[in-house]
Design goal:
Blueprint (H helix, E strand, L loop, with lengths): L4 E7 L3 E8 L4 E9 H4 L5 E2 L2 E2 L8 E2 L1 H16 L8 E8 L5 E3 L10 E2 L7 H10 L3 H8 L9 H10 L1 H6 L2 E3 L1 H10 L4 E2 L1 H4 L5 E2 L4 E2 L1 H7 L9 E2 L5 E4 L2 H7 L6 E3 L2 E2 H8 L7 E6 L3 E5 L25 E4 L3 H11 L3 H8 L10 E3 L16 E3 L8 H20 L8 E5 L6 H11 L3 E5 L2 H17 L6 H8 L1 E2 L12 H18 L7 H10 L2
Parallel strand pairs: 1-7, 7-16, 7-17, 11-14, 18-23, 23-24
Antiparallel strand pairs: 1-2, 2-3, 4-5, 6-9, 8-10, 12-13, 15-16, 18-19, 19-20, 21-22, 24-25
Length: about 525
């Protein structure tokens, strides 16, 4: 295998990243990134999203992602890296985005609705009603119908843009669309990303006839075949070989969603390890041998990219409140870490529920933030800083409690994992070691997966565990352990947050005023 390289692309909301690994030397010789806003300004995006749309609409031009990939390939071809030795390439993509193509592979709708588009709430309600209610939906697809998932995006197109819907020969997700480009026309899905369409049942590993027909009886003809995620789907297109110098023998892995490859890129490929991704949204997920179907649909029932399962929690509000606070007070990340230390853990019962925009977990498209326990003179920088930090982590933990796992270790990825305050608060609230993962997250996971697929298809039974052990590096210097002296405080704070969360939504819960009273009295 001398001189063989493997590549991973991560086509995310805000950027596309390319990682190349050398399995012989166990090195990562090349990493590059294209930021859509600054590197492709002609698309007019902010944080990768086209501006000027109505509230709740989040869309991008799929051609921007292709242009980003081509720019990365151009840079790679001039880098001196022997890219002609890349034997397999895999794509990680932001989940749930909808791309519709006609029979010639042209877009029938010029823009793609993204995972954080909340404009399809009505379609979710209609689909749920047509399928017989929420329980019937969960029975059919393992998940509820949510604006984040793909089904309501397809239904929205059918209802509001029927001509674009009729012209569509097949619907793809983001990474499938990139694969279509890389292979010059192979249109397939795989179980991991397909799980998030709310049309495909991860338990039966098939399209749900009930869900498909509730949307449109003709939809089944527009849905591609779902192939195993542990296989390749074809060779790289000849025009990319000619233009950028790739080997015509380079295989294209089936690819998967960014969460599935985030798991691989953090070594989360066995039960007990939990990955928490701290970015625009927040996610927490783990690996299970059997499917987990949440009876309330709060935890997403996904397949992973290894033939197993990936129950996943996603909250829409994570970095937004934190970033707004930094901007409001002109704080650096380091200054924030210092500021938080001026207040005690638990913030003396001051709670902020950070639903600044529509929230995915709990499913509240019209959500608004909520403050509790603040007096008129309590809105100081340091108290707000702790309230924002703890509010975001508590919101993530509230959903995580539904997952069937006791974490041995939480592996952190995303920009906020560099913050000591975030790492310590996660360790304290989740009551488990929290350790940041060095490196490139989903893009690295894609490259590792590409190597694993190629080796197995080449007659080698190489272990994915061995590959992740070689390339996934934990930042032990920033590992944080739960602080025993704060355990009881945070357990009370978690009870308070849980009670408030449920009361706001009209659900039965403990009396939050009583919990708050006992908390501030230390009893």
């Amino acid at each position: 295998m001398m001189g063989f390289f493997f590549a991973g692309l991560d086509v995310s909301t805000q950027s596309t990243k390319l990682v190349v690994i050398d399995t012989e030397k166990e090195e990562i010789p090349y990493v590059d990134i294209v930021h859509y806003d600054s590197d492709l300004p002609h698309y007019g995006t902010r944080d990768g999203v086209i501006q000027g749309k109505p509230k709740g609409v989040s869309e991008s031009d799929p051609r921007m992602w292709i242009e980003a990939v081509e720019l990365l390939f151009f840079r790679l071809s001039h880098s001196g890296i022997p890219h002609q030795n890349i034997r397999c390439l895999s794509v990680s993509g932001q989940q749930h985005g909808l791309v519709s193509l006609d029979a010639e592979g042209k877009l029938t709708r010029p823009l793609s609705k993204l995972w954080n588009d909340f404009s399809t709430a009505e379609e979710c309600k209609l689909l749920t009603q047509k399928m017989g209610g929420e329980k019937a939906v969960i029975d059919a697809v393992g998940n509820t119908q949510r604006t984040g998932y793909t089904a309501s995006k397809i239904f929205h197109m059918l209802r509001h843009e029927p001509a674009a819907y009729e012209r569509a020969s097949f619907f793809l997700l983001v990474h499938n669309y990139i694969n279509f480009f890389l292979t010059d026309g192979v249109a397939v899905m795989e179980p991991g990303d397909a799980s998030g369409t709310a049309l495909w049942n991860p338990r039966t590993r098939s399209w749900s006839k009930k869900a498909v027909e509730a949307l449109d009886s003709g939809l089944s003809a527009k849905l591609p075949q779902v192939k195993p995620s542990e296989k390749s789907i074809g060779n790289i297109a000849s025009h990319l070989v000619d233009k950028y110098g790739f080997s015509p023998e380079c295989r294209i892995d089936a690819g998967s969603g960014d969460n599935m490859y985030g798991a691989v890129g953090t070594g989360n490929i066995r039960p007990g390890i939990v990955t928490v991704s701290l970015g625009t949204s927040g996610t927490a997920y783990t690996c299970l041998e059997e499917p987990y179907i949440d009876e309330e649909g709060e935890i997403a029932a996904f397949c992973d990219s290894t033939g197993r399962y990936l129950p996943l929690l996603c909250v829409s509000n994570l970095a937004n409140g934190y970033n707004n606070l930094l901007e409001l007070y002109e704080l650096s990340h380091e200054q924030f870490d210092v500021l938080v230390l001026k207040t005690p853990p638990g913030n003396e019962g001051r709670i902020l529920i950070p639903w600044y925009t529509g929230e995915r977990t709990p499913d509240l498209p019209m959500a608004a933030p909520f403050c509790f326990g603040f007096g008129l003179d309590d809105f100081t920088q340091e108290r707000l800083a702790r309230a924002v930090l703890e509010g975001h982590v508590l919101n993530l933990y509230e959903g995580f409690q539904r997952m069937p796992v006791e974490p041995e270790e939480i592996r952190l990825t995303g920009g906020l994992s560099r913050s000591s305050a975030w790492c310590q608060t996660i360790a304290d609230i989740f009551e488990a070691d929290a350790v940041p993962v060095e490196g490139e997250g989903a893009a690295l996971g894609a490259a590792i997966h590409a190597a694993w697929v190629w080796m197995n298809e080449s007659g080698r039974e190489d272990s994915l565990d061995e590959l992740t052990e070689k390339f996934v590096k934990l930042d032990e210097g920033r590992r944080r352990r739960p602080n025993p002296s704060d355990k009881n405080i945070y357990r009370s704070v978690k009870r308070l947050f849980h009670a408030l969360n449920r009361k706001i939504r009209g659900k039965e819960a403990e009396d939050p005023f009583l919990i708050h009273h006992k908390l501030i009295r230390g009893s």
